[in-house]
Amino acid sequence: MAAKLPFAFPMRQVHLDFHTGPQIPDVGANFDPQQFAQTMKDAHVNSVTLFAKCHHGHLYYNSKRPERHPGLKKGLDMVGQQVEALHRVGIRAPIYLSVLCDEYAANTHPEWIAREADSSLVKRSKQNNKVFTPGWQIMDMTSPYQDFLAEQTAEVLKLFQPADGIFFDMCWDQPSTNPYFLNAMRKEGLNPECTESRERFATVVAKRYMKRLYRQVKASSPDATVFFNCRPLFQLASDIDFMTQAEIEALPTGGWGYMYFPINMRFARTVSPKPVLGMTARFHKSWADFGGMKPHAALAYETASMIAHGAACSIGDQLHPRGVLDKAVYELIGHAYSHVTECEPWLVKAKPVTQIGLFQKPTGVTNTTQSTSQTDEGAVRMLTQLRHQFDVVQTGCDLSKYDLLIVPDSLALDAALADELRAYIKAEGRVLFTGSSGLGSDGTPSFLRELGLTTAGESPYQATYMRFLGKYRAAAAPTDHIIYDRTVRVTAQRGTQVIAGVVEPYFDRTWDHFCSHNQTPGDKLSPYALGSVHGRVGHIAFNVFEAYAKHGNLPYRNLVKTTLDALLGKQLITVSGPSYLEATVTQQRQDRRQTLIVHLLGYQSERRAPGIDIIEDVVPLYDLEVVLQTRTQPKAVTVVPAGEPLEFTWSNEALAFTLPELKGHGMIAVTL
Question: What residue numbers bound the domain in which 637 lies?
Answer without folding.
Answer: 574-671
